[in-house]
Automatic annotation (TrEMBL), chain A:
Coiled coil: none annotated. It holds the Pfam family DUF3100. Keywords: Membrane, Transmembrane, Transmembrane helix. The keyword Transmembrane helix applies. It comes from the Bacteria. This is DUF3100 domain-containing protein. The chain crosses the membrane at residues 12-29, 35-57, 69-87, 107-125, 162-184, 190-215, 227-248. InterPro entries: DUF3100. It comes from Ureibacillus galli.
Automatic annotation (TrEMBL), chain B:
The lineage of its organism: Bacteria, Bacillati, Bacillota, Bacilli, Bacillales. It comes from the Bacteria. The chain crosses the membrane at residues 6-27, 34-54, 60-79, 91-112, 124-145. The keyword Membrane applies. It comes from Ureibacillus galli. Keywords: Membrane, Transmembrane, Transmembrane helix. This is DUF340 domain-containing protein.
Length: 289, 151
């Protein structure tokens, strides 16, 4: 990705626009809304992503600039990664102490399968649900599913729609719920800090922000844990999907659809394409047997 | 390579400037006070990109080099680490996150039409996907941290 940096700095219109967004959003500042027992934190970065999407639809931004912005996300993200790192160094003893939790929480990323797959099946989704729920569907997972099923397969359509959903809504959604969950649930902010390593830089930033803002006295340790978790996920994430996430999703899909087919067969009618796909699958397995 | 390096430096100058301004407006840190910190962060990032470029094995992402480099340079045993920690402490994390998400927003705009076409089922499942990974990790971390008595 660093390869496309050519001439990006020259696009002063884009940079001035982003600078303007930064100034406006920082001037608006941080606000919070109480929702029941928890707090939803509205941070400048949240306004920034929404304003960013909005200005794309004004004549101020061209499609080409929007493509350039992607590389700049990456460049700016490196500063955040460096910030993660320098917070982690002094926290080395805490990181070692919390090592087991940091490593094992990676397994928690599979929680997405356990929670989201049943929901998808309940809503009547078929094999798309495998692509959608085997992971949070970022670039490496898009590549994995494409490689295994092809992008035009139901699984491929599933991961693609999740990719689009996450791209547009991921940081906004996590930015809203992270502060709320950390204040409303009995779970410790440290645990949520470790959970921010979801496998996407901007989602990590969006979910970490409210934690740092809500617990300023723990900010250093929270950032260190978040940084370590992000680093771990960036290295292990794809392998966890290949060896655990995807096989587990397929297995659970089989178990859940078997039970469901007995109780609610009418849902089968929803998509004819998917049915033929399933029939093919079944006949294949029969031949093998 | 040389051309790329020039481009990187210029881009780092631009985004560092934004971070410093945001840091000033939002978190009341004077730009001069934050300057050494942002220079340190940008230099680390820049070095990480170069290391990634120079090493022929590309299996490790450049952000891993950046993270590890920053980590090593700020360990208490490393000479000068306390300076780096002190300087970078003046650069608020949230001030770095705002320009990231502003650029991200502009880049996301392109996907908006595709997003609008997604069915309501995808949106619901999508929220559970994000909630699942976030809450799942937090619960596992909580259990282990409690077992160890850290929290």
């Amino acid at each position: 990705m660093e390869g496309n940096a050519a001439g990006l700095w020259k696009d002063w219109k884009l940079h001035v626009l982003v600078l303007a967004i930064v100034c406006v959003t920082e001037l608006i500042g941080q606000h919070s809304i109480s929702v029941g027992v928890g707090i939803i934190l509205l941070l400048p970065m949240l306004y920034a992503v929404i304003i960013g999407i909005a200005v794309y639809f004004t004549p101020l931004v061209t499609k080409k600039q929007s493509e350039k912005a992607e590389t700049l996300v990456y460049i700016t993200l490196t500063l955040l990664i460096a910030k993660f790192g320098v917070q982690a160094g002094p926290a080395l003893p805490q990181l070692i102490e919390a090592g087991p939790a940091l490593i094992l929480q990676e397994i928690g990323n599979l929680g997405t399968i356990l929670i989201a797959l049943p929901v998808a099946i309940l809503l009547g989704l078929k094999r798309e649900s495998i692509g959608m729920t085997h992971s949070i569907g970022r670039e490496p997972n898009l590549a994995l599913i494409t490689d295994k099923f092809g992008l035009s397969s139901p699984e491929g359509r599933g991961v693609m729609s999740m990719y689009i959903f996450g791209t547009v809504f991921g940081s906004i959604f996590l930015g809203l719920i992270s502060g709320f969950l950390a204040t409303a649930t009995p779970l410790h902010p440290y645990s949520f800090a470790m959970a921010t390593g979801v496998g996407s830089g901007s989602m990590a930033a969006a979910s970490l922000g409210p934690l740092v803002a809500a617990f300023p006295d723990m900010a250093d340790t929270i950032t260190a844990f978040s940084g370590a978790s992000n680093l771990l996920t960036s290295v292990t994430g794809l392998y966890a999907s290949i060896f655990i996430g995807l096989p587990l999703t397929e297995k659970l899909y089989k178990v859940l659809t078997k039970r469901k087919n007995y109780s609610e067969p009418e849902i089968e009618m929803e998509s004819t394409i998917v049915i033929t796909e399933e029939v093919k699958e079944e006949s294949k397995t029969k031949v093998v047997k | 390579m040389l051309k790329n390096i020039q481009e990187w430096v210029l881009l780092f100058v631009i985004v560092s400037f934004m971070v410093i301004i945001g840091n000033w407006i939002g978190y009341d840190v004077m730009p001069l006070e934050a300057l050494p910190g942002i220079l340190a962060l940008a230099s680390i990032s820049f070095l990480g990109l170069i290391i990634h470029r120079v090493i022929p094995y590309k299996g490790i992402p450049s952000i891993a080099y950046i993270g590890i480099l920053a980590f090593i340079l700020s360990m208490p045993a490393v000479p000068g680490s306390e300076k780096i920690v002190e300087w970078t402490g003046k650069v608020n994390l949230l001030a770095i996150a705002t320009p990231i998400l502003a650029y991200a927003g502009i880049s996301i705009g392109r996907s908006w039409t595709d997003f609008a076409k997604l069915g309501w089922k995808t949106v619901i499942v999508g929220m559970f996907v994000l909630l699942g990974t976030f809450l799942g990790s937090a619960i596992v971390a909580e259990i282990i941290l409690r077992m160890q008595g850290i929290i």
